[in-house]
C-alpha cells in the first residue's frame, strides 16, 4: 500500500494542473491538441489539469515543454542556489588548511 500524499504536495500538483489548464486555454489550444503534442492521451491531459497526483511527472514536463517553459522545471532545485545545502557544506569546512610536508624523494 502506498503512503498517503502529503497535503502540500497535493495542493502543489493541483495548482500546477490548474496553471497548465489556464496556459493551454490562453494559448487557444484544445485538450486534444495538447495531448497530441505531448504524446499523451486525452484522459491523461484531463487528469493532469484536474491535479491528479497519479499522473507521472514526465507528462507535466512534456506540457511545460509544449508551452516553452521547460526551464522552469530545470531550475526548481538549482543546487548553486541551495542556501541550506551550501550552509551545511560551509559548516563542515575545516577551520584551517595546512600545507603538506615536502616529500624527501626525487621527482
From TrEMBL:
Highest taxon of the lineage: Bacteria
Protein name: Helix-turn-helix protein
Record-linked InterPro entries: Cro/C1-type_HTH, Lambda_DNA-bd_dom_sf
HTH cro/C1-type domain mapped to chain residues: 20-73
A GO molecular-function descriptor: DNA binding
Organism this protein belongs to: Azonexus fungiphilus
Amino acid at each position: 500500500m502506498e503512503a498517503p500524499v502529503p497535503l502540500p504536495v497535493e495542493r502543489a500538483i493541483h495548482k500546477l494542473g490548474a496553471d497548465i489548464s489556464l496556459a493551454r486555454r490562453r494559448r487557444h489550444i484544445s485538450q486534444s491538441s495538447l495531448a497530441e503534442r505531448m504524446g499523451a492521451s486525452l484522459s491523461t491531459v484531463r487528469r493532469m489539469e484536474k491535479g491528479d497526483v497519479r499522473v507521472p511527472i514526465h507528462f507535466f514536463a512534456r506540457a511545460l515543454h509544449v508551452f516553452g517553459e521547460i526551464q522552469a522545471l530545470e531550475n526548481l532545485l538549482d543546487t548553486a542556489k541551495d542556501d541550506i545545502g551550501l550552509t551545511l557544506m560551509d559548516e563542515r569546512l575545516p577551520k584551517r588548511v595546512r600545507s603538506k610536508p615536502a616529500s624527501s624523494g626525487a621527482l
